[in-house]
Amino acid sequence: MLTGLLLKYLVLAPLTGHELSNRSNVRRMRHGTHFVESVSMLAYNRSMNTVIEKRSAGGIVHSEGKFLVIKAIPYDETILPKGTIEEGETPEQTAVREVLEETGYKTSITVKLGEISYEFDEDDGKRYRKTVYYYLMDLIDKDAEPTPDRQEDEDFENIWLTVDEAMLQLTHDNSKNMLQKALEILEKLKEV
Question: How many C-beta atoms surround the C-beta of residue 192 within 10 A?
């Protein structure tokens, strides 16, 4: 009975592979398309009743009918480039910087696409709410060779995909939703 009640209230938002990998000491059970935590860890997290805010920004880069994604090899995920907003940075500055660092491509922002938020627990026992700001971006120099400036633990591969390929390969529904928004905006821009 208690487990059933806990499961009712313990369903977490879908998490990225990176977030799951950082939670290796937490027992997880598959429940539909969501993960639920073991009772002991959940009780600990909920008793703290603190949510720490995190903010990131990234972009959907397009060129000649294709979209830039990155393959996060350790997590076997296909994702959009994004990263943490540093102190003193705007989300727009972060998006341009993170796309450059992770992919090596210089870009400019066309328009803001929107934002997504989700919550997750880390190995430190704390609960986080992350908000990610996404932008539609253009390549500045289509002929330039990309020179990523990735962190040591970022084992990424740049991949240019058609919209159909991207919709199939992107790991997370939130990314697919942002790509759909980007397509709608690109269609409107063609009409002008």
Answer: 4
Give residue-wise pLDDT tens across range 121-163.
988 889 999 999 999 999 998 888 887 776 676 678 899 999 9
Q: What is the spatial distance between Cα 11 and Cα 28, in angstroms, rounded to a whole number? A: 11
Domain regions of the chain by residue span: 2-50, 52-191
Q: Could you count the other beta carbons within 10 Å of the beta carbon of residue 115?
A: 14
From 27, 32, 21, select the one nearest 76 (Cα to Cα).
21
pLDDT beyond 90 at 4: no
Domain 52-191, architecture per CATH = Alpha-Beta Complex (3.90)
User: Are 88 and 110 a contacting pair, CB within 8 Å?
Assistant: no
Output the DSSP codes for 125-187.
Answer: S-EEEEEEEEEEEEES-TTSPP-----TT--EEEEEE-HHHHHHH-S-HHHHHHHHHHHHHHH
| CB contact at 8 A, 55 and 87 | no
Can you read off the two tokens belonging to residue 149? Answer: 């400036």
Q: What is the mean pLDDT of residues 171-180?
A: 95
